[in-house]
Design goal:
Tet_transcr_reg_TetR-rel_C_sf, 69% helix, Tetracycline Repressor, domain 2
Length: 217
């Protein structure tokens, strides 16, 4: 009897053996002792199979890191780092499929459609940890910009994913370095900076009297 997992595994085995997706659902189903009807009971297309595989990577990573005893004590920055490190550690065991899945799509401004469901899960996770960071004061609640912080994290994920795909270092140690530097720089931008202090000071001067008079001009 076909299951979500058995179809995913059969699909991964096929594309890694043949280098391309099956020519039709009929042939794929026939070669895996199932009917077309059984396949469509779980997925509407081969693209949907790939989307589900990537989504499972996200769910497994999020579940794993949230069960860590130290998780509630982590800052938003540490939670993001934990996700990135754990995700790419998990992906090592499926590197051949991940590389195949991403490289078959032309590079562009938008992310590959196979990551659509993954992106929804990632953004839900990002919203959660960023909200905690804003509530605790770890991150700066900038008007109009704070709600876009998750977009910054998604862009950082896309960069690291492409870096990892092309990383030839032993144990992908350069990817670990890219994660550390990239996530930390991103969170530095989310936190209060001298520019925020300058803007607040300007607002204070405008609110509390003539700006030029305050400046002695």
């Amino acid at each position: 009897m076909a299951t979500t997992e058995s179809i995913q595994n059969a699909y991964i085995d096929y594309v890694l053996t043949e280098g391309h997706e099956p020519k039709s659902v009929y042939l794929f189903a026939k070669n895996n002792d199932m009917s077309e009807e059984e396949f469509y009971r779980f997925f509407g297309s081969f693209e949907a199979v790939e989307q589900s595989i990537w989504a499972d990577y996200a769910r497994k990573t999020i579940t794993e890191i949230k069960t860590q005893e130290i998780w509630p004590q982590y800052s938003a920055r540490e939670k993001a780092l934990s996700f990135f490190y754990s995700f790419f550690e998990l992906l090592k065991s499926s590197r051949s499929f991940a590389v195949y899945s991403i490289r078959k799509h032309p590079r562009g401004i938008s992310s590959p459609r196979v990551l659509d469901t993954f992106k929804n899960l990632f953004e839900g996770f990002a919203d959660e940890i960023l909200r905690d960071g804003l509530d605790s004061g770890e991150l700066t609640d900038r008007k109009f910009f704070a709600k876009r912080y998750k977009d910054g994290l998604w862009m950082q994920f896309g960069f690291v994913l492409n870096f990892w795909i092309n990383d030839n270092s032993a144990g992908f140690e350069k990817t670990d370095e890219a994660i550390e530097k990239g996530v930390n720089v991103t969170f530095d931008l989310f936190q209060r900076s001298p520019i925020d202090n300058l803007i607040d000071y300007g607002k204070f001067l405008v609110k509390n009297g003539n700006f030029k008079e305050k400046m002695g001009l």
